[in-house]
Amino acid sequence: MLVLGIESSCDETGVALYDSEKGLLADALFSQIDLHRIYGGVVPELASRDHIKRLIPLLNQVLTESGCTKQAIDGVAYTAGPGLVGALLVGASFAKSFAFALGIPTVGVHHMEGHLLAPMLEENPPKFPFVALLVSGGHTQLVRVDGIGRYELLGESVDDAAGEAFDKTAKLLGLNYPGGPEIAKLAMQGVAKRFSFPRPMTDRPGLMFSFSGLKTAALNAWQQCKAECDETEQTKADIALAFQQAVVDTLTIKCRRALEQTGLNQLVIAGGVSANKALRQSLEAMVAPLKGHVFYARPQFCTDNGAMIAYAGCQRLLAGEHGDLAVEVKARWPMEQLPSI
């Protein structure tokens, strides 16, 4: 089955073609980072309008790269949520119209399920069951995964997601959007142990997260340095390093608990923050004594992309799922509500 995947949940337009027998044939992405950077974050109306501009050119690009025709496509998968409603509606409307014209089925894909299954696109994919850490600008969740659609939420953030905390901390330090890569880059020049930030909610049992207080700790440290006339680039780098290490340590501690609680030793990390090298190294060191393994997608598939939607949608289309002509999206959508296949 040849499936067209469309991702438009936020500020990146992704289109891909996935073949159930040959694998990923082509993938194209347009990022709106430059469009939103001057505002310090995503402007929903601008994001929606830009998706409209990009979808047809990206579709033509993947068709050309794959050597496929529109008529060869067997189904269309699109992100139905969660995400920005306007942005989601652009992708869903395009998918429904395209599929109607060709007389082929569509399926709405959960954005986070797409991220969770992105490592399946790699040469050495994980096998069920495993624990997944979904960590991005909008989500920080630990999930037990026993199969596609068989998800048990183990813990999540009670306030800011880890990626959101990265973005907000970067902004208070005067760094560009998106903040995660900027913090990681600056942290490479930081001096360790100059600042010490808390590891939130690690001193109590459970698998819940909280990053709001950590963000405040970084803000207080920066304001104190400015008051003491120590507003230097080195100070920024030292704060960035301390902040990143606190997030990495917190995520690592919670992942270890989740593996111990479930008795599993396979860990999948997915979402934009999973591209962070310090996090990957910390988690790999953590699972080594457990004789386990950490799985993650290649960097370009950690952030939003059409390939993950095409893959997830293909699995559900093969299982017989498909939607009607109604254009429906969900800004909020608990992953546990998904049917298993």
Automatic annotation (TrEMBL):
GO biological process: tRNA threonylcarbamoyladenosine modification
UniProt keyword terms in alphabetical order: Acyltransferase, Cytoplasm, Iron, Metal-binding, Transferase, tRNA processing
Named cofactor requirement(s): Fe(2+)
Name of the top EC class for this enzyme: transferase
Cellular compartment(s): Cytoplasm
Cofactor remark: Binds 1 Fe(2+) ion per subunit.
Binding-site residues, Fe cation: H111, H115, D304
Entry binding sites for substrate: L134, V135, S136, G137, G138, D167, G180, N276
PROSITE patterns per the UniProt record, alphabetical: GLYCOPROTEASE
Keyword Isomerase set for record: no
GO molecular function, one term: tRNA N(6)-L-threonylcarbamoyladenine synthase activity
Catalytic activity, as annotated: L-threonylcarbamoyladenylate + adenosine(37) in tRNA = N(6)-L-threonylcarbamoyladenosine(37) in tRNA + AMP + H(+)
Gcp-like domain boundaries: 24-311
A single GO cellular-component term on record: cytoplasm
The protein's Enzyme Commission number: 2.3.1.234
InterPro entries listed in its UniProt record: ATPase_NBD (IPR043129), Gcp-like_dom (IPR000905), KAE1/TsaD (IPR017861), Peptidase_M22_CS (IPR017860), TsaD (IPR022450)
Function: Required for the formation of a threonylcarbamoyl group on adenosine at position 37 (t(6)A37) in tRNAs that read codons beginning with adenine. Is involved in the transfer of the threonylcarbamoyl moiety of threonylcarbamoyl-AMP (TC-AMP) to the N6 group of A37, together with TsaE and TsaB. TsaD likely plays a direct catalytic role in this reaction.
Family that this chain belongs to: Belongs to the KAE1 / TsaD family.
Record-linked HAMAP family: TsaD
Designated name of the protein: tRNA N6-adenosine threonylcarbamoyltransferase
Biological source species: Entomomonas moraniae
Lineage: Bacteria, Pseudomonadati, Pseudomonadota, Gammaproteobacteria, Pseudomonadales
Gene: tsaD
